[in-house]
């Protein structure tokens, strides 16, 4: 390679349908992975806060292990190691599962920080006006927490988007794999990875902008902490 | 799993630590420049700094590594894959570190700087004696998290053929057909390294005993 | 009768924040060796006025001079207002000591470090000499035993006293206080006010923004009452608080003192 020094992004972009297909898979992985991660992460945070102590320790241990090891190693462990304990998954479900577990560990920490950040006085005030525990959760804790954790949740969700690229390593046909395959086909590696970088960059910037807009709309509910 | 296999992983982990430490150190120097650019009064420098941070934080490290791995030879720089790997990691962590630094410098309460100004300190003295040490303390936890992030991200350089911990586990798993044990062991080694780094960070923080700001 | 040159002379001072006029043509002389207190409701511009004298805020218009030397801006030829070079600003400002509401002690330095820092970096003293001088200043305010403590290990009142020592160590000709007791618990304000009272007795020129009406009335030689960016009344405490009073002052006193105390004044 290298004889042809012309830098032709048009070549890569001429495969637009294949790129869009990969993009579709990336978005699917991202949305399902982070939605599951958000939900499971919330359950983990609730379990650690309100559950019995041994459950809390167990959950904390699992979260620390997931946060202390590379996502790629987790993916390999699940995808290649799983069959040895009877967990035989195709690469797409394996990828989604790995992503969801990974995301859940990080989201649970954000939820936990959100719980901790709600001033005790607000809960006492809810108690005083006679809210039930359920009403307090729904009317006070959840809305206040949403405002508090939104910026870090947006950051985390963007991080998950970037992590989906790693799933190309187990041949999952998402954006990175599709575009790099086009590059390999034409020995146009630099072009293909440039296009890829620009696509991810655009996606991340769009998400960031949407996140900031949501923050601005919610900002009137902010309170000093 | 035999001790011999485990020992091979530990050997490979040395390269993981070396690559990460190198990338973090080089990235720190680049981050200082980028941060200076972002805080500069010069519009071009500010724009360049922001663009750098936005790009390297806005794209997956995997894509950055692959791009650099193929880009360097195509512009006539035939370097070993370790160099490509460390370059990619350094640029990526530089973007994150620059943003951490900018946040830390901005978080120093303005009153402390006004107090320095009122004693007649010059801008340079105020920066060196007041703003920098306080920003360092404020950003220490974030910098330690970034170091741990980088140790984990170093697993991605396995795709450009650097035989570090993850790649060694991959190769051994293929030859011994024992992926479960090998990847679990690799994960354990990463975990231990990261716990050590976290403890070092906590120790350093405790030594700066001047408490809350 | 020609009065002696004031320590600070403020003429036609205006300050805008965006489109809001915070100071609207202030004329005020700060007499040498006396305590001048700025009082008034929140938002009246008294802190902004003090910060203009420290040049922490750049006045939009008007002039300030310290011992006759222009601060920040001077009258140029044909009446134009010219900004002075930074070196000149630092020289004039080096005669001013400032004490903040939030103390603003540097958290990474001990009490002695806070007091000695500028002696080393600005005045070029050796670290040992500077620390010796700093210890003397701390002894003078009764904090010699706390010299090695970090600000986080000191009470609010102690922190504010260290901040006063930090300013005094540089031998300022005038001390500015921006609500020095406003962030202190009531039981801690006394120790700070006592230090200020002793400083006043030693003949220091002081400009104090405060809500401590009792302090202003007993220690202040001159009181300026600000409202909406203007000086409503100025004069000796006896004149400003004498009845019949401006209705705005009555209103203000009733807010800051309980009714009984207000009628006593």
Overview of the structural elements:
The complex is a heterotrimer of chains A (225), B (213) and C (265). With 225 residues, chain A is mainly α. Chain A contains nine helices and no strands. Chain A has helices spanning 9-13, 16-50, 53-68, 71-81, 91-117, 120-128, 133-163, 175-185, 189-218. In chain A, helix 2 runs antiparallel to helix 3 (53-68). The longest helix of chain A is centred in the first third of the chain and has 35 residues, at 16-50. Chain A is flat, with a radius of gyration of 21 Å. By secondary structure, chain B is mostly helical. Chain B has a single domain, classed as MetI-like fold (Orthogonal Bundle). Chain B has eight helices and no strands. Chain B has helices at residues 3-39, 43-58, 61-74, 81-107, 110-118, 123-153, 165-176, 179-207. The model of chain B has no long low-confidence stretch (mean pLDDT 92). Chain C is α/β, with parallel strands linked by helices. Chain C contains ten helices and twelve strands. In chain C, helix 3 (111-121) runs parallel beside helix 5 and helix 5 packs parallel to helix 6. The chains are: A mainly alpha (225), B mainly alpha (213), C alpha/beta (265). The A-B interface holds A 2, 5, 65, 68-74, 76-77, 80-81, 84-85, 162-166, 168-169, 176, 180, 189-190, 193-194, 196-197, 200-201, 204-205, 208 and B 54-55, 57-64, 66-67, 70-71, 73-74, 148, 152-156, 158-159, 166, 169-170, 173, 179-180, 183-184, 186-187, 190-191, 194-195. Chain B: It is a multi-pass membrane protein. Chain B: This is Amino acid ABC transporter permease. Chain B: It comes from Amaricoccus solimangrovi.
List the quaternary state of the chains: heterotrimer
Which structural category fits the helices and strands of chain B?
mainly alpha
Gyration radius from CA atoms of chain C, angstroms? 19 Å
**Mean pLDDT of chain B, nearest integer?**
92
Describe this structure in a few short sentences.
The complex is a heterotrimer of chains A (225), B (213) and C (265). By secondary structure, chain A is mainly α. Chain A has helices spanning 9-13, 16-50, 53-68, 71-81, 91-117, 120-128, 133-163, 175-185, 189-218.
């Amino acid at each position: 390679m290298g004889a042809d020094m012309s830098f032709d992004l048009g070549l890569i972009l001429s495969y637009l349908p294949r790129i869009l297909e990969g993009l579709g898979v990336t978005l699917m992985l991202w949305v399902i992975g982070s939605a599951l991660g958000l939900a499971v992460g919330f359950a983990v945070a609730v379990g650690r806060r309100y559950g019995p102590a041994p459950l809390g320790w167990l959950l904390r241990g699992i979260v620390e292990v997931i946060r202390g090891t590379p996502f790629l190693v987790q993916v390999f462990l699940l995808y290649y190691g799983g069959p040895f304990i009877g967990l035989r998954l195709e690469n797409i479900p394996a990828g989604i599962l790995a992503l969801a577990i990974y995301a859940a560990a990080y989201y649970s920490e954000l939820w936990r920080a959100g719980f901790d950040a709600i001033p005790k006085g607000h809960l006492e005030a809810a108690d005083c006006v006679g809210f039930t525990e359920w009403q307090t959760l729904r009317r006070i804790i959840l809305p206040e927490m949403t405002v508090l954790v939104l910026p870090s949740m947006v950051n985390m969700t963007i991080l998950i988007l970037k992590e989906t690229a790693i799933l190309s390593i187990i041949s999952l046909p998402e954006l990175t794999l599709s575009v790099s395959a086009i590059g390999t086909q034409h020995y146009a590696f630099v072009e293909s990875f440039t296009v890829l970088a620009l696509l991810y960059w655009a996606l991340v910037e769009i998400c960031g902008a949407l996140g900031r807009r949501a923050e601005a709309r919610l900002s009137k509910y902010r309170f000093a902490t | 799993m035999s001790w011999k296999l485990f020992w091979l992983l530990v050997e490979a982990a040395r390269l993981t630590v070396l690559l990460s430490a190198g990338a973090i150190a080089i990235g720190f120097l680049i981050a200082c420049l980028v941060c200076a650019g972002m805080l500069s009064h010069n519009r071009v420098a500010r724009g360049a700094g922001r663009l750098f941070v936005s790009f390297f934080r806005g794209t997956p490290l995997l894509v950055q590594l692959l791009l650099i791995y193929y880009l360097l030879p195509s512009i006539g720089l035939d370097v070993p894959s370790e160099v490509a790997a460390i370059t990619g990691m350094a640029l990526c962590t530089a973007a994150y570190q620059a943003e951490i630094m900018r946040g830390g410098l901005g978080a120093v309460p303005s009153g402390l700087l006004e107090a320095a100004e009122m004693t007649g300190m010059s801008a340079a003295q105020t920066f060196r004696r007041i703003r920098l040490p306080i920003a360092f303390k404020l950003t220490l936890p974030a910098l330690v998290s970034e170091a741990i992030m980088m140790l984990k991200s170093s697993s991605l350089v396995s795709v450009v053929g650097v035989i570090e911990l993850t790649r060694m586990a991959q190769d051994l798993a293929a030859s011994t057909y024992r992926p479960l044990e090998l990847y679990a062991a690799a994960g354990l080694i990463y975990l231990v390294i990261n716990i050590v780094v976290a403890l070092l960070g906590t120790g350093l923080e405790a030594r700066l005993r001047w408490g809350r700001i | 009768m020609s009065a002696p040159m004031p320590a600070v002379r403020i003429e036609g001072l205006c300050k805008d924040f965006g489109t809001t006029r915070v100071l609207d043509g202030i004329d005020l002389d700060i007499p040498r060796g006396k305590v001048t207190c700025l009082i008034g409701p929140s938002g009246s511009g008294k802190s902004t006025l003090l910060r203009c004298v420290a040049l922490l805020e750049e006045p939009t218009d008007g002039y300030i001079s310290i011992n006759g030397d222009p601060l920040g801006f001077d009258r140029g030829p044909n009446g134009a207002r010219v900004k002075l070079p930074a070196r000149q600003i630092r020289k004039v400002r080096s005669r001013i000591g400032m004490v903040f509401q939030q103390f603003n002690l540097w958290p990474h330095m001990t009490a002695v470090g806070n007091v000695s820092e500028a002696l080393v970096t600005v005045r070029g003293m050796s670290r040992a000499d500077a620390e010796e001088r700093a210890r003397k200043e701390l002894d003078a305010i009764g904090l010699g035993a706390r010299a090695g403590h970090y600000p986080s290990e000191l009470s609010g009142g102690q922190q504010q006293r260290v901040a006063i020592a930090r300013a005094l160590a540089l031998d300022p000709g005038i001390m500015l206080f921006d609500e020095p007791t406003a962030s202190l618990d009531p039981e801690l304000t006394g120790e700070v006010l006592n230090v200020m009272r002793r400083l006043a007795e030693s003949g220091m020129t002081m400009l104090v923004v405060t809500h401590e009406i009792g302090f202003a009335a007993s220690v202040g030689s001159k009181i300026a009452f600000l409202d909406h960016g203007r000086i409503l009344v100025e004069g000796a405490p006896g004149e400003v608080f004498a009845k019949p009073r401006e209705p705005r002052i009555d209103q203000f006193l009733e807010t800051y003192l309980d009714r009984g105390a207000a009628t006593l004044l």
